[in-house]
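Risk register update: the risk that structure generation would not scale has been downgraded. Supporting records follow, first protein first.
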Amino acid sequence: MNLKCTGFLTAIAVSAVMAQNETPAAEVAAPAATPAPVEQAAPAPAAPIAEQATHTEDKFSQVEKELAPENLFSEPTAVRGEDAAKPVVKETTKKFVYRPVYSPSEVETSGAPVKTIYVTEKPSPETIDTDELRGLIPLKFTFGLQGFIGNEFLSGDNGRYEYDSYSGLTWNVGAFALIPLDEYNMAIKTGVMFEHDKVSNSFGYNVDGKYGEYRATFNQYRISIPLLLSLKGARSNLHFDVGLQPSFAVSDNFKLKSSERTSKFDMMDKDYRSAIDWSIVVGFGIRANRYIGFDARFCWGLNNQYDDFPSSVWGGVNNLSSKAVSVGATFYAL
C-alpha cells in the first residue's frame, strides 16, 4: 500500500513539473507565428542578386567601352626611350562609321571572287545604288553642248552627162537635250546646231585651143534641228542615233573664179537656193564619263539644194544634194 501511494504521488509531481515547463514555451512561440516578421525577412536574399546584376552590368559596360572606336583605333603609346610612360599625342581625329554587312558568308560563290557591300544610312562618295550593283546604266534627262567637224560633199548630175562633185570642210556647234522614253534603252535627242560648210572644186576648160581652169566655191551657213531616236543597251554607254534633220539656210554665196574673171552670186538673194534642206542622220557615240562623250555622224541629204541657176553661167550647180561625215565631242551638264 505504501508503495502504491508513493508511486502515485511521484507521477503527480512529475506531471506538475512538466506542465510548468511547457507553459512558458507556448507563450514564447506564440509571437513567432505572426506573418509580419516573415514578410520583412523575404527581401534579405535580394541584396546579393542586385550586387551580382550590378557587377554584370559593369562588366559589359567595361567591354563596350573597350570596343568603342575611339579605344579600338586609339594611337599607340611609346614603349621605349624617354617617353616610355607617356601616351603619343594625337595629331588628327579619326571618324568611323558603323556599316552593317548583309550575309557575306552565306552567299554561294562557286569559286568566284566576292565583294563585300557596305550599307550606310546617308549617301557618301563610296555609296552605290541598285543599278550600279546590277551593272545597269539608266537613261536620265540631261542637256549640254555639242561640236562636230568633218567633210562635206555636194554632188549631183548636171544634165550634161557629167557628175559634178564638190568637197570641203564642215563644222557645227550647238546645244542638245536628251529626253528618256524608258528607263534604260530609248530616248529622244534634239537640239539646235549652227552649221558652216565650205566646199569647192576645180575644172579645166579648152576654148578655141586656149586652156584654163575654173574654180567653183560654195560658202553655206544654216541652222539645223536634229530629231533623233537614241538607242542603247541597258548595260552599255554606247548609243546609236537615227532620225531626220531639217536645216534652214541662213546664207549661201557662190563664187566662180577663172584666170580671166571672178563671178559672185548670193544664192539666197537670187532665190536659187531652197529654204529648207532635209537630211537623214545616222550616228553612234559613247559617253566616256559623267560629263564627256564622243560621237560620229553621217548626214545624207534628201533634196536638191539649188534650182534654176542659169546654166549659161555655170552648168554644174543644179541638182546638187549634200552628204557629210563628221566626228565630235559632247559635254553633258548633268
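Supporting record for the second protein:
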Amino acid sequence: MTDTATWDCHVHVIGDHDRFPLSPTRGYTPPVATLQALFAHLDSIGSARAVIVQPSVYGSDNSCLLDALAHSEGRCVGVAVPDPDSSIADLGALRAAGICGIRCNLINAGGLPFAATQKWWPWMRDHGWHLQLQIDCTRTDLEALLATPGVPPVVIDHMGFPPPGSGVDAVAGLVAQVAARNVYAKISAPDRIVAKPPQYATALDIAAALLDAAPEYCLFGTDWPHTELTAPVMPDRDWHKTVRKLAGAHWSSLHAAALELYTPRHT
C-alpha cells in the first residue's frame, strides 16, 4: 500500500544513453534506470513521492531529469545542476518544470562548485529553493560554510558521506548543525559509508545520531538505483523499515520536513 504522506528524497533516473547522452567527463557509467522502474521502486516501499536528483554523469545537461518530471504524473520534483552561466530566467524555467533546488556534488567529477551558486542565492531564497551538497563532511568546515552570508537552506547528502567505516564521531559536526536546525541531512545510502556491506552497524549508528539530534531536519532517501556501487546493497524495503524503526514516533517528522522543503512556493 502506498502512503501518500511519505517521500523518497534521493533517487536518480538514467535515460537511454542514445537519447540522453552521458557527459564525456563523467566519473562512471551507470546502467539505464527508467521512470517506470522508479515508480515500481516507490510502490515497493510504499512511498507516493520522490525527489529526482541530477546525477553527476549528466553534468549540467538536465534534459533527462526534466523529461522524467514531465512524465512523473505529479509524483516527483527535482534537484538540478544548472550550467554556471545560467541566468535567473533559466532558473525560472527550471522552476516551472518542477525543480526546487540546486545540487553541488563536490565528490564526483563534473559537480557544480559551491561558489558558482552564490549569485543565485537571493532568487533561491525568494522562491523557496534549497542548496543540496554532496560532500565528505569530515573534510569540510560545515559550520563556516553554513555561516556564509545569504546561503539558502542547505541539505546534506547521504548522512554527510564520511569515509567507509566511519563512526558517529566522524560526523559530529554535521550532527551538531542538524541539532541546531541549521541544515537538513538525508538519511540515505548506508551502503556508501560502510566498510564491509552488509555490516551496517556504523551507518545505523550515524542515522540514529542524526535522528536523535532533530528528526524534523532529517529526510528519508534510498539512493535508488544505487549507481557506482559494485557490492550488493541493502534492499530498499529493508532500509525503509530500518529507518522507520529508528525514527519511531518521529517518522512522520521526516516526511513533514520533505513536504515543507519540496513543495513549490508560489511567488
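The chain has nine helices and eight strands. On this basis the risk owner (M.S.) recommends closing the item.
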